[in-house]
Structure formats: structure tokens, C-alpha cells
Amino acid sequence: MADAPRATDFGLREHPGACHCGAVRFTVLAPARIIAQDCNCSICRKAGYLHLRVPAAHLRLLAGSDALTTYTFNSGVARHTFCRHCGVKGFYIPRSNPDGYSVNLRCLDTRGMEEIRLEAFDGQHWEQHAARTAL
């Protein structure tokens, strides 16, 4: 029987991440060359959030499930998770992809990344641009 495929077989790497205080720790399976979105919607702009969208299976929570709290607003579909100790949002379930995660690039250790490219995203007019957020 053949071994199960490894992340490296698909050009993916594990990137460790955490909130500010370290209570919430996680890893994300993503390429070494990252394309993230800089959204101008009200919550992302105020928080400085940079979106790296990944399938749900590519995020693994290592510690801190008891430290997470959730905030929803507007449509209630997006589930914004924050560390209840330091207030940092390392990842959340976006309304554009409720079966995946948006990870805050600012919460990841970028040393294993070969390139980071930011794309502007007009989240102030989300409905007109939502198709750009699909995985």
C-alpha cells in the first residue's frame, strides 16, 4: 500500500501562527509563495487583517480552543474568532467560504515563506466582489 500523500507533494508547507499572547496557536498548510488579500471593509481595515484563505482541512488548532470567543454581525454568516485574552483574530470562518478559513497573515510566522504578495480587495462593496474570495 502506498503512503498517504504529504503536504510537500503538493507544494504546501506548514506555517505556524498564534495570537499576540500565544494562548491560541495553530498551523496552516499553504504554499511557500503566498497571495493574501488586503480588504478595506470596516472590520478588516480597523483590525489590519490580511486574508489568506484556506480549506478547513488546512488549518489545525494546536492550543487555545478554550481561549476563543466568537463575534458575528450583519448577516451572521461569518464567524469572527478572537483570543479572549489579547483580542487578536488569527483566523475566522468567512461568509464567502463558510467551509474554510481566512487566516490573518499577520499572525503567521513568515520565515518559511518565499514570497508574499498582497492584493487589494474592495470589501466595502463585498457583494460586487465576493466571487474573488472563493477558494
Structure description:
The protein has 135 residues and is mostly beta strands. The protein has one domain (19-26, 37-133): Beta Complex (Metal Binding Protein, Guanine Nucleotide Exchange Factor, Chain A). The chain has helices at residues 42-47, 126-129, and strands at residues 12-18, 25-31, 33-39, 50-55, 59-63, 68-71, 79-83, 91-93, 100-104, 115-121. The strands form two sheets. A seven-stranded mixed sheet has the order 6-7-8-9-4-3-10, with no helix packed on it. It has a three-stranded antiparallel sheet with strand order 1-2-5, with no helix packed on it. A hairpin with a 6-residue loop joins strand 8 (91-93) and strand 9. The longest helix is centred in the first third of the chain and has 6 residues, at 42-47.
Keywords:
single chain; 135 residues; mainly beta; Metal Binding Protein, Guanine Nucleotide Exchange Factor, Chain A; 7-stranded mixed β-sheet; 3-stranded antiparallel β-sheet; 2 helices; 10 strands; 7% helix; globular; disordered N terminus
